[in-house]
Write a structure and sequence with these properties.
This protein has 212 residues and is mostly beta strands. It is built from three helices and twelve strands. It starts with a helix and ends with a strand. This is EH domain-binding protein 1.
C-alpha cells in the first residue's frame, strides 16, 4: 500500500534523474587511546541501498599516534543513479539525503559503524555536468572515535527529465513493485526512487564545495 501511495503522490510531478559519482581521496580519523581501527571502509547508503569501498589500512601519523589517515592513492569511484522530484508549487527540486558511513572492518570481516553524515544530493544537482571537491565532517556514532572527515570529489550528470510517473524515470524497484504485487511488503523497505551502480557490482555535514 505504501508503494501505491508514493506513486499517487507523484502524479503531475516532474522528475529529473541524475548520476552521481563519488571519488574518494582521503579519510582523516582521530581515535581514542584505548582503540585503533583495523581497516576502514566507506559505505554510501540510502535505506537498503549500499555502495561499499574496499577496506583500506589506516595509518597513524608519526606526530600523533591517535590521528591518522587513509589515502586512496588512486581515487576509488562509486556511482549512484538518483531520481529527484520537483515540487510543483515552487518548481524546486526536493531534498534527498544519501548517507556516508565510516565502518571498521575486522580481520574476520565483521563491520562496525564508526561515524556517519548525510549529504543532500539536491544541493549538488546541476543541469550541466559538474564536479565539486567536498569535505564531509562525519559524526562519531560511539566512543571509539573523537573525529572523522571524508574528502572526495562529487561529480553529477543529468541523465533525463520527465514526468515522475514515466517508466524511464522510475527505478528498478518501482518497476518490480508494479509487476509483482505479492512482494509489496518487501519492496516497501526499498527506496523506489533510486538504484545504485558500482565499478564492481559484487561490492556494493560541514561541506566545503569548490566547483570546477
Amino acid at each position: 500500500m505504501a508503494s501505491v501511495w508514493k506513486r499517487l503522490q507523484r502524479v503531475n510531478k516532474r522528475a529529473a534523474k541524475f548520476q552521481y559519482t563519488a571519488s574518494y581521496h582521503r579519510i582523516d580519523v582521530e581515535t581514542t587511546p584505548k582503540w585503533k581501527p583495523n581497516k576502514l571502509s566507506i559505505v554510501w547508503t540510502r535505506r537498503s541501498r549500499r555502495v561499499v569501498t574496499e577496506p583500506v589500512e589506516w595509518e597513524p601519523s608519526l606526530k600523533d599516534p591517535l590521528k591518522g589517515s587513509v589515502i586512496f592513492t588512486v581515487p576509488e569511484n562509486q556511482t549512484v543513479t538518483v531520481t529527484l522530484f520537483r515540487d510543483p508549487r515552487t518548481n524546486e527540486l526536493e531534498d534527498k539525503d544519501w548517507t556516508f558511513v565510516l565502518e571498521d572492518v575486522s580481520p574476520t570481516g565483521k563491520r562496525r559503524r564508526l561515524a556517519a553524515a548525510a549529504l543532500d544530493l539536491r544541493k549538488h544537482a546541476s543541469l550541466a555536468a559538474a564536479q565539486r571537491a567536498v569535505r564531509v565532517q562525519l559524526e562519531p556514532t560511539g566512543r571509539r572515535l573523537r573525529a572523522a572527515s571524508l574528502h572526495l570529489t562529487l561529480h553529477s550528470v543529468l541523465l533525463r527529465e520527465g514526468h515522475a510517473t514515466d517508466e524511464d524515470m522510475q527505478s528498478l524497484a518501482s518497476l518490480l513493485s508494479v509487476n509483482n504485487n505479492s512482494d509489496i511488503a518487501v519492496l516497501e523497505d526499498l527506496d523506489e526512487d533510486d538504484y545504485t551502480l558500482s565499478d564492481n557490482s559484487t561490492r556494493q555535514a560541514s561541506l566545503l564545495d569548490h566547483p570546477t
